[in-house]
Amino acid sequence: MNETKIRKRAPRKQAVVDRFPEDGTRRVVVENVLPSVEDGRYAVKRTVGEELEVTADVFADGHGSLRAVLKYRPAGSSTWTETPMEEVENDEWLASFPLEQAGFHEYTVEAWLDTFGTWRDELEKKSAAGLDVGSELLEGARIVREGAERAQGRARTWLAARAAVLTGGELQTACVVAALAEDLEEAMARVPDRSRAAAAGRTLRVWADRERGRVGAWYEMFPRSAGTDPGRGATLAEAAARLPDIAALGFDVVYLPPVHPIGRTHRKGKNNSLVVAPGDPGSPWAIGSADGGHTAVDPALGTLKDFDRFVAAAAQARLEVALDLAYQCSPDHPWVREHPDWFRHRPDGSIKFAENPPKKYQDIYPLDFECVDWRGLWQALLEVVQFWIGHGVHIFRVDNPHTKPFLFWDWMIAEIQREHPDVIFLAEAFTRPRVMERLAKGGFTQSYSYFTWRNTKAELTEYFTELTEEPVREYMRPNLFANTPDILHEYLQVGGRAAFQVRLVLAATLGASYGIYGPAFELCEATPVTPGSEEYLDSEKYEFKVWDHDRPGNIREFVRIVNRARREHPALCFDHRLQFCPVEGDELIGYMKTTPDLESIVLVVVNLDPHRVQHGFVEVPIANLGIPADQPYQVHDLLSDERYLWTGARNYVRLDPAVMPAHVFVVYRKIHTERDFDDYQ
Amino acid sequence: MNETKIRKRAPRKQAVVDRFPEDGTRRVVVENVLPSVEDGRYAVKRTVGEELEVTADVFADGHGSLRAVLKYRPAGSSTWTETPMEEVENDEWLASFPLEQAGFHEYTVEAWLDTFGTWRDELEKKSAAGLDVGSELLEGARIVREGAERAQGRARTWLAARAAVLTGGELQTACVVAALAEDLEEAMARVPDRSRAAAAGRTLRVWADRERGRVGAWYEMFPRSAGTDPGRGATLAEAAARLPDIAALGFDVVYLPPVHPIGRTHRKGKNNSLVVAPGDPGSPWAIGSADGGHTAVDPALGTLKDFDRFVAAAAQARLEVALDLAYQCSPDHPWVREHPDWFRHRPDGSIKFAENPPKKYQDIYPLDFECVDWRGLWQALLEVVQFWIGHGVHIFRVDNPHTKPFLFWDWMIAEIQREHPDVIFLAEAFTRPRVMERLAKGGFTQSYSYFTWRNTKAELTEYFTELTEEPVREYMRPNLFANTPDILHEYLQVGGRAAFQVRLVLAATLGASYGIYGPAFELCEATPVTPGSEEYLDSEKYEFKVWDHDRPGNIREFVRIVNRARREHPALCFDHRLQFCPVEGDELIGYMKTTPDLESIVLVVVNLDPHRVQHGFVEVPIANLGIPADQPYQVHDLLSDERYLWTGARNYVRLDPAVMPAHVFVVYRKIHTERDFDDYQ
Questions:
Q1: Which of A13, A16, A25, A42 to mutate to test the interface with B (most CBs of B within 10 A)?
Q2: How far apart are CA B193 and CA B188, in angstroms?
Q3: What does B16-31 look like in DSSP terms, one character per residue?
Q4: In a 10 Å sphere around its CB, with 0-12 CB exposed, 13-18 middle and 19+ buried, how is residue B249 labelled?
Q5: Active site residues per annotation of A
Q6: Given an 8 Å threshold on Cβ–Cβ distance, is B415 in contact with A379?
Q7: Which terminus in chain B has less CB density within 10 A, N or C?
Q8: Which among A358, A375, A407 has the least Cβ separation from residue B125?
Q9: What is the pLDDT of residues A598-633, one digit of tens each?
Q10: Is the distance from CB of A103 to CB of A51 less than 8 angstroms?
Q11: Interface predicted TM-score of the whole assembly (ipTM), two decimals
Q12: How do residues B234-245 score in pLDDT, each as one tens digit?
């Protein structure tokens, strides 16, 4: 056959050359670098002190040895740190890096073919098979000489000398020994030829929060109800007196609804009545009056100085203050006068109040994020946060973020966290899953969840499986509120004291971050405004309350014990490592949390039925814990302080809600034997 | 509170303005457009005639109505076609578009807030609640006037007039009727305000193959063994005489191992012997001799003209020819002399032969894709394909693509398919999953699979579940070979005739594309070269064979029946819609395939035990098929031609491998009743 014919068919040389890729001899592929949120468009979330474990698919054509490194740096830094990756299986490689400071960190993966390693493997196999390897040694000498050229100083000389040894020996076996020596392998590993290295397509980012971004017990309180005089609202100074008690219950964060002046126009009366009585304080979320707007303190609560003192008192009690960030205005808010263009006007010139037809919220004007001066509006909203940061607030609970544009939150949170990476934003978006997820991707540190509406075993198992799966768990951290001023679930309305215990233990152990709205919660306040409603009767949202914190039937001591368990057992401080354990029946639910090193193991079993005793067998995944089936192990119930010796996976539990509806067991993998006794040996 | 203080803390105006995003008032989000392979870096695969179903998450802050369109176009076109998307649930939107020509098509999603729709919904709710809507009508008139400004000609006039009606009526109810009228809704839908529309982050691509890319029955044959004279190899002219018989068996593609001149240096003898006897033809994969290389025909087979005639004869028999593309050279290949730089040289000047230490393949030189002249090499390899396309070959079975760089395949396949979108490449990469996947992503039309090594119920279920899951199924199409010249699985070695039937029916019904290497397969050739080996004894790879196509024990008629079933039942022509059906025991496996419209339903039950009768109950997912539990339905076994009336999900099957080891049932959802009789009504 004459092959010249086909040459004529080929396109003109120049045109062809243009079509070649630049890096046609790059043989390595790096793909699927994880964790990653939407191909790196958003950052993964972790906290300072954690390691970020990174995996990637790394492979090449053919059979050559590969090397891969994980590269990482704090965002903004121009130099990468590298750590070698190890192959796990099936071309998946793994390495991790520590997150030592708050803020963004970048990471990527680079890999290359290890010419020396490939050659060394071949030499090893061939010499083991007794083949002549003269030609291989010549090749190796060339590879080592090239390595020497990439080396500096003594390494260069040393490698050049070793290259000579590979071919200089009388005996081939001696040359092979020199070629396979570990010192040569190490020296060559220090001077890799990375000219054809491949990198992951996109540099990924992880956002590192301080630890409170991941773990914390929150306590929501209305400061105006912290007093003892039913005739008036308490001041911040009076509310501060409650802080040591809240701290003693084991909480980390005290979250205050808006503390700003409350509008008078269309103010709501008790139980959300359209008719307001003299002295009714109105809803704290109807922000703004002649006394000021989002950067003012309601005079009934005190002054900005009082607020500063409250923050200081909290710090004294080792509590941190979280403030409500509700971007909306009462008709009396100064912005309505100063920036009427920030609100949506109707054709008749009036401003549109909030509504969800046919419901109307005449006491609230939403801001118009589509206004011409949106930049001015964004800047003002940013400055509100900056203002309160200036007053010691580093946690913001954001009201209804899902009714403001995502791009605004992306921008605002980035602006704040660039200067203040310690600031935490909790999104109160009770809305559809994709919307909640998008807010979390955009930067919200934590998110309210559907937890209040997940009460059965099936609901809880499905929901928490979903929340701890990839990729959601990489960017969305639920903060499990057991109740809120808007949500008194039917389960609590009808379940009595045990129901409150059940929901508390679920929130506090399923969620590294959880919260209660108190003192309604720990006092087991259970009456709805109307049957079938989730609103509280005589809600604090619309009136002053005076609470008897020691009233009979409260679960204060239970709350204290549960919060202490959280503090003492690191397994409860992470969300990811959650595993449901099979338990018989629909009323008993069991799950386990562990730290990666298994130093902390907590097994929780809850009787979801607040009325009846339930019992059955729980299956402890002892194989995952490395506990042999025939070896006893100790479990210590932190709620009852009882200890049991169990053996094998299946163990009997019996929970009487009238006594205690849950076990929170610490599992000790090893019990002492005679061999542990000092004199045994 | 005085708010002016904080102004001082703000950064300078100019610096701040720079930090705002350009499109801060864009409120809509379009995310997660599927199908997509690695965020659109690679194309999804479909075939001409299919619809591509596209979903996306589309949402915005707040409660406004949304509109979304799927945009698509053939790659290279500058104009998009749009089709409206519908919301399915949970912010997921759906639409599809037809693939009417082979090649790349682009698609993306665009969405916007529907101001008119949002306003219309509000008006509807408020007027239903009996509220005064005077202000709303004023607002609507403004929205409709703005719509008129975006409209042309008569629509403009019509909308302007309607805007006037909205506020001009005496009776508000009449205005509301005009506002809610369907004609207004339709007219406004034609003039949407898309100035703040959001688009998906990345335009995605789908590659549309011709139908053969998705479905086909392949028959591999050695043309030199198609004759009757054991003393010499058959010619292409003699091999062409076999084509009508192969076509009659129901195959679509006849695949030939390399037809090029075979090297003499280090030629292998019978059974892969290092000692070659005079007259031994050598392996067809040792390509190249003094007679030519990859664009030449082995003189023992004939001339290029004979090859052209073979292709024409195949077409005559409605068969298509697939050629082996093995990019490697015997030491006698012309390229070794003309382009020594395309091969890897050892330090002693010799060329490195192929090896997988300690195995050596002295008769084969691999090409060096890292050579300096890699562009010249790529071009030559491209021209090989172009050459055979010029001779009527449009299907290439690529030998060991995983030992050549991925970037080369990406480039080569793109270069070919840009001119010839009908060309099909089948990757013979029996290697690790990530490597096989990368080849498929890079453009290979089909891929060999692990099917030959998946023989038990658990193995088959796991593997085919994996292959039909997202995202693998979007880009990798397995072609299930039941045997190959290199793979005679132990199952076939020990299972007798029934084993061949079992593996054929599995391959042909689990895979829309499948193949056999014949006549070894249909003649149930089962002897390995040594016990425990998967190589055939006296393999055609190294010698001429003469076959008796009618020898006793063959399964030719069975093959014909199975291939006819594939042609007549569209459910078997797609891979995606596969569902395993519970059947008792480890030996019976059941699965169902359907077309989306359920017009074609095939239920396959196979006894994997080739030695013993197995029986049990198969669960037919009648609920998915819309068959009531109490209504009989007919199943027709295409293998035995027997028909049964079944009722309910669980039905008894009994399969005797000595008679017939499988059922291939067509399921008819409806049986005739008296109501179907013409005279009934």
A1: A25
A2: 9
A3: HHHHS-TTTT--EEEE
A4: buried
A5: 399, 428
A6: no
A7: C
A8: A358
A9: 999 999 999 999 999 999 999 999 999 999 999 999
A10: no
A11: 0.92
A12: 999 999 999 999
